[in-house]
């Protein structure tokens, strides 16, 4: 034994091919993202944070009064050029079977394996995705069974 540690080859994580404008817009989308909260959720434990539209007649939030949290509106949407892109910059493709990987562009598309896919088929999809060089957004933990 010479004491050398053999390094296993790590699969390279593909990067999306984006224009400078798309890269700028993605960064801008993340910086400007607003966390919309439900009215009075900071006041009562029983009222959860997830967004619900304020509907009260005298609601300060609905009337967009100064000092109250912002309301959801069309102006907060993502720029059209990057709408629907994953934060990593890839187009997210939902996959149910191994055949659906054919024809995908590894420089533009990333796959998300559907939650209904079982362990056996998931292994096949992951193996083929590795061969094609596709990024998998939810690989999960796969253990060898007997």
Give an account of the 3D structure.
By secondary structure, this protein is an alpha/beta fold. The chain has two helices and three strands, in the order αββαβ. Strands 1-2-3 form a three-stranded parallel β-sheet, with helices on one face. Strand 2, helix 2 and strand 3 form a beta-alpha-beta unit.
Query: Percent range for helical residues?
Result: 10-25%
Strand order of the largest sheet: 1-2-3
What form results from the Cα inertia axes? elongated
Task: Provide the β-strand percentage band.
Answer: 5-15%
For the biggest sheet, the summary is: 3 strands, parallel
Q: State the distance separating the first and last CA atoms.
A: 32 Å
State the order of secondary-structure elements, H for helix, E for strand: HEEHE
Number of strands: 3
Uncertain runs with pLDDT below 50, 5 residues or more?
Answer: none
Number of helices: 2
Radius of gyration: 22 Å
What is the overall pLDDT average? 89
User: Would you tell me the structural class of the helices and strands?
Assistant: alpha/beta
């Amino acid at each position: 034994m010479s004491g050398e540690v053999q390094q296993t080859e790590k699969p390279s994580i593909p990067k999306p091919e984006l224009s400078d404008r798309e890269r700028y817009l993605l960064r801008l989308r993340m910086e400007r993202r607003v966390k919309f909260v439900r009215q009075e959720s900071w006041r009562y434990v029983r009222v959860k944070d997830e967004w619900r539209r304020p509907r009260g007649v005298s609601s300060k939030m609905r009337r967009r009064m100064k000092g109250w949290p912002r309301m959801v509106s069309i102006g907060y949407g993502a720029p059209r050029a990057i709408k629907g892109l994953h934060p990593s910059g890839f187009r997210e493709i939902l996959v149910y079977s191994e055949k659906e990987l054919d024809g995908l562009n590894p420089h533009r598309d990333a796959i998300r394996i559907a939650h209904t896919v079982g362990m056996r088929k998931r292994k096949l999809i992951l193996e083929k995705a590795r061969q094609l060089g596709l990024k998998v957004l939810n690989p999960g933990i796969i253990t060898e069974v007997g």
